[in-house]
Amino acid sequence: MNKTITIELSTNKKPKPKASELGFGKYYTDHMFIMDYDAATGWYNPRVVPYQPISLDPAAKVFHYGQTIFEGLKAYLTDDGKIRLFRPEQNMARLNRSNARLSIPAVDEELAIEALKQLILTDSDWIPSDAETSLYVRPFVIATEAQLGVNASTQYMFMIIMSPVGSYYAEGIHPVKIHVESHYVRAVRGGVGNAKTAGNYAASLKAQEEAYAHGASQVLWLDGVHRKYIEEVGSMNVFFNIDGTVVTPALNGSILDGITRDSIIRLLKHMNVPVEERQLSIDEVVTAHQEGRLVEAFGTGTAAVISPIGELTWEGTRYVINGGNTGELSQKLYDTLTGIQRGTVEDSFGWSVVVEPSEHLISR
Ligand SMILES: *Cc1c(COP(=O)(O)O)cnc(C)c1O
User: Fold this and answer.
1) Could you read off the pLDDT of 183-219 as tens digits, one per residue?
2) Of all atoms in ligand 1, which is nearest to the CA of residue 262?
3) How many CA atoms within 13 Å lie on the side-chain side of 325?
4) Where are the domains of the chain?
């Protein structure tokens, strides 16, 4: 295919919100990236264009059968004036694993990363510079063929949109309350739980609402077969520090393989903290809590990076973890990982990627 990305600049620049108004996913930058696919041509016409609504036939398959996937990552404007991404090649590799599961044709990962860089450079004035803020990047693919048969679409759009986001933690990281879900399940092995696809999130809303009603902010999912093994929390992977050994559920096909999860496991190994990826039952966690061996628990994901868990509720019983406070290890992991992302902590892993201007693959 022709890999030349064309850039059409917007003539209508939007006003930028103040850092205090940012929140999450409320504002979008001046440009977006689009590339089309049809079965005869493959992927074609990669382009940066002004941010705008798209027009789709009401019969487009994405609306009816949910053939769609997405990714999420962040760009940071760091103290040295550079723009940094965190392991973007991992996001594009996972995008293609999700694509494969949903019978969506693979995207050229090198081109997708170049598209991401060009879009970020085009809208670099949108990257907020205040502490803890960043530019959230959302690549996604939708099936656009107008045809109601249940089969894989012959047409798609790959798009990237970007949103400046505020600090996840206004006053430093603080622990959340989690509801252990015993009625609904998120995914089963062999299903699509390990793909970042829309239906997983639509299916989680009901349980999320009930968790809110119980005063919790997120759901901890148990496995769909035995209803006893821990899977993940909302849109985060989950870790438990039991007596100094950090345990996280193994990638079993029904949980999402988080890039933050992988980074935390590598960091722990680097710090010589014992870490185990294995099956972990809710009973084991409750027993560890009762015996005073559950030192801390935390979720991991791009949005919050580390989200300490201060309290679990399961079948009507509350289990307060670490006195409801942020654990020492959670804080250390948060400081180290956000430091690497923002270029203030030495990155011995080669995770941080500086976005540099290049004329590579570009035509204006
Ligand atoms: C995106 C996501 C995660 C976290 O993945 P990261 O790559 O760390 O952001 C975890 N669980 C689910 C269900 C997700 O969608």
Assistant:
1) 999 999 999 999 999 999 999 999 999 999 989 999 9
2) 8
3) 6
4) 5-166+352-363, 176-326
pLDDT single digits (tens) 281-328: 999 999 999 999 999 999 999 999 999 999 999 999 999 999 999 999
Place of tokens 């006003």: 15
CB 342 near ligand 1, within 6 Å: no
Q: Which CATH class is domain 5-166+352-363?
A: alpha beta
Region 176-326: CATH code = 3.20.10.10
Spacing, Cα 302 to ligand 1 middle (Å): 7
Q: Which of 111, 107, 194, 187 is nearest to 142 (CA)?
A: 107
Residues 6+ apart with CB under 8 A from 146: 57, 58, 59, 60, 61
Whether the CB of 299 sits within 6 Å of ligand 1: no
For 127-162, the DSSP string reads S--STT-EEEEEEEEEE--B--SSS--SEEEEEEEE
Q: Residues 254, 189: contact at Cβ < 8 Å?
A: yes
Residue appearing with tokens 């990236």 = 33
Distance 42 CA to ligand 1 centre (A): 29
Indicate which residue's Cα is closest to atom 5 of ligand 1: 258
Amino acid identity at 125: D
258 lines ligand 1 (CB under 6 A): yes
What is the CB-side half-sphere exposure of residue 298 using CA atoms within 13 A?
A: 29
What pLDDT does 357 receive?
Answer: 73
Total length of the chain: 364
With a 6 Å cutoff on the Cβ, whether 87 touches ligand 1 is no
To test the pocket of ligand 1, the residue of 235, 260, 305, 341 to mutate (highest count of ligand atoms within 8 Å of its CB) is 235
In short, whether 88's Cβ falls inside 6 Å of ligand 1 is no
Task: Give the whole-angstrom CA distance, residue 338 versus residue 74.
Answer: 11
Strand ranges in 181-243 using DSSP code E only, listed in sequence order: 218-222, 230-233, 237-242
Q: Is 237 in the pocket of ligand 1 (CB under 6 A)?
A: yes
The CB of 261 under 6 Å from ligand 1? The reply is yes
Bridge partners (DSSP) of residue 68 are 142
Residue with CA closest to ligand 1 atom 10: 236
